[in-house]
Amino acid sequence: METAAPAPAISKEHSTLGLLLRSPTFLTGAAIVLFWAFCAAFAPSFVPYDPLADDLLNTLAPPSAEHWFGTDQIGRDVFSRVLVGARDILTVAPLATLLGTALGTAVGLLMGYFGGWTDAIIGRLIEVMLSLPLIIVALMVLVALGPSTPTVVVVVGLVFTPLVARTVRAAVLSERHLDYVPAAAVRGEGWLHVMFVEILPNIWPPIIVETTVRLGYAIFTIASLSFLGFGVQPPSPDWGLAIAENYGVLVGGFWWTVVPATVATASLVVGVNLAAEGLQRALAE
Amino acid sequence: MSRIIRHLDQWRLGRTDLENHVIDELLGGRLDRRSFLRHGSRVGLSLAVMAAALKTTGLDPIGRAMAQTGKPGGTARIALIAPSGRIDPVTVADQYGLLVLQQVGDFLVLDGPDLVLKPMLATEWSPNDDGTVWTFKLRDDAKFHDGRTMTADDVVASIDRLADPANGSNALSAFKGVLSKGGAKKVDDHTVEFHLDAPNGNFPYYVSSDNYNAIILPADYSGDFETKMNATGPFILEKYTPKVGASFVRNPDYWGGAPLLDRVELSFYADQQPQVLALLGGQVDIVQQVTVQGSQSLFDNPAVEIIRLASNAHREIHMKCQSGPFADKRVRQAMALTLDRPRLVQGLFRGMAEVGNDSPFAPIFPSTDKTVEQRAKDIEKAKQLMGEAGTSGFDVTFTTMQIQELPALASLIKNAAAEIGINVTLKIEDSGAYYGDAVPGKSDWLDSEFGMTDYGHRGVPNVFLAAPLKSDGTWNAANFQNADYDKLASDYVAALDLDAQKEVAGKIQRLLLDETPIIYPYFYDYLTAASPNMKNVQPTAMGQIFLQTASVG
């Protein structure tokens, strides 16, 4: 029995990967995300212009052969800025998501495993946090601490923590009464060992799905914070910031200063969500 | 011509030495028309004398001031940003609140669109020999909206109210060290004397529309301005709704003649974009102020008239002089040499600005010494200065606000600084966080090593010379401590005579160019947008819009 147990698990993993590779939803999403990830990693070496270089004699130039997406208010090349701009969001959003997932998982495990007063108290605190709009909480903290990239990562990670914790708690509740949990306790394992070594490996599918869903929200939240002036600082080509810097000239017909960054943000969020959807279906099979 | 000269001579007989000196300067060709008008009006020369003097030199006399030529009736609808705080003449502190005040109220003196002082509630004014006492004669036909006649008591009470520290008036920033409580004294019903704290050659500007809090209110004003707005202005309050707008109707008994317009409506907005759209869509006729960055659609648009006024509004880029990487003045000079100012003016303002020369003496001030050499971009020299100061570069944070073109200029400064090895990290925050409590230790503005602040237009450079630059200046973000400068700044304020002002200005300009505590990259024009069917709209670079002679159609 003991030796046979891992075999179905491996084959299930194989079948999950197979399902993913056959899922057009997942493949489309993954392709979009990989495209932007590639840009984030390598765009600075192949874009036609330095994304930070200004040209005050060539401001707000419309798209042309020279500048494919035109130039912005201080003459920077919009095409180069959009490709390189993937870098900030694809660094900050995954980091914030990872932080939120790690903290949320730890809290969720505590709540689910101990139950009782621990669960009740942390649960009420989570409800209080969830009753406040995410972006408002993030804004308040950023106003107090001052905007910077590490602060954004921490703030977004923290506001995602209760959401992840709730999902993980539900998963732990369905596991903790299974035989292997009391068995481990009987073996004399400590509660930390039981939570992280015994229970955690059995609840990773919902955590993975939650992480991908959170990544989509993180991108959106961070772009919103940048747009409101509380995210990445200028002169970064970050998309949210680019929209904030240029939406004022939109009325003048200078759409090319805003549209590429908007489409890029939307495509990345859609890409991540498609991938998450594909993953969720594959894991549910 | 001889008759005109005789005529002028008669006028000159009753004038003071100071006034005659100004006329001599014009006749001797040492003052141009505009400087003569500005300077002459400051020392109290009447428009009639100035017109006679101008005729003598063959220059254009003063244009028909605010002639009513349009057809009566109609409404002027103005878009502006919602004023912050209550509308109270004592405390209003922004260019939105001042527009409300100025529709219903009048000043002693008008610093008009052409930057020439004109009589308003005061008909004439003159200083004593050393500029410590200024005497103002008042109109006898100005009435408050409640029917009472304005007298010297009202003027004394209004100005005293602003000079009294107990009232926390916004005008204290102008009156501090100039006029204290009790300095305004009634001589008779239509004459007021101002006894100043120190000699001041520019005092009429302090009681002009430049000091936008200084509208004359009844002596018994008790602080309920928003309900009645009882003052002497051309329009009478109909309705005021905070955060929404205000409407006014014509004052048929206005001392300057009833306005042509039936009504004025102010609509408050949160941002510039909806104002621009409202103008293009025909919901408003005038947008109080538009910026080049946010109003590209209005330029070259035949459906919109852009009223452009030269101004001395500017940005001050401060560098801490006492400590940190900018303590050596050669590093500050090097930083200033990295900026390509003509390109900034072209790229950020489509040319609608003047290049700055690292002192607050904007080209439009008549006292500015234009012989001082203009600083221009010179990377080689900048690198040499850095070398002499013993540095090849350093890291520094540049702090500024998220308003208008400041973030764009900050990015340009970062790129410029990189050319001489200065690695700038930008910290762009909202204006509340930037100003903080506006005291050292609790304000990013005053505490930052390297930062940028915006300064609005003023009729005279006195405030620019004092608060941000004097050793004890309350806005001295650069921590500039220089006894020679302090002396020169006081001398400038005290100088009554334009020659003396110009001489001190030249010394100040050269000293600041050498020390470079602050970089003044440009002075940008004040732009108001109006529909072409609005006639005779008279904005000022302070943000006021005079509509007494305006008409629709």
From TrEMBL, chain A:
Residues 86-276 form the ABC transmembrane type-1 domain. One of its GO terms (biological process) is transmembrane transport. Belongs to the binding-protein-dependent transport system permease family. The chain crosses the membrane at residues 26-47, 89-113, 125-145, 151-168, 215-233, 253-276. Keywords: Cell membrane, Membrane, Transmembrane, Transmembrane helix, Transport. It is found in: Cell membrane. This is ABC transporter permease. Coiled coil: none annotated. Its main location: membrane. CDD domains: TM_PBP2. The keyword Cytoplasm does not apply. It comes from the Bacteria. GO terms for cellular component: plasma membrane. It is a multi-pass membrane protein.
TrEMBL record, chain B:
InterPro entries: Peptide/Ni-bd, SBP_5, SBP_5_CS, SBP_5_dom, TAT_signal. It holds the Pfam family SBP_bac_5. Keywords: Signal, Transport. The keyword Transport applies. GO terms for cellular component: ATP-binding cassette (ABC) transporter complex; outer membrane-bounded periplasmic space. GO terms for molecular function: peptide transmembrane transporter activity. CDD domains: PBP2_NikA_DppA_OppA_like_17. Belongs to the bacterial solute-binding protein 5 family. PANTHER family: PERIPLASMIC BINDING COMPONENT OF ABC TRANSPORTER (PTHR30290), PERIPLASMIC OLIGOPEPTIDE-BINDING PROTEIN-RELATED (PTHR30290:SF10). This is ABC transporter substrate-binding protein.
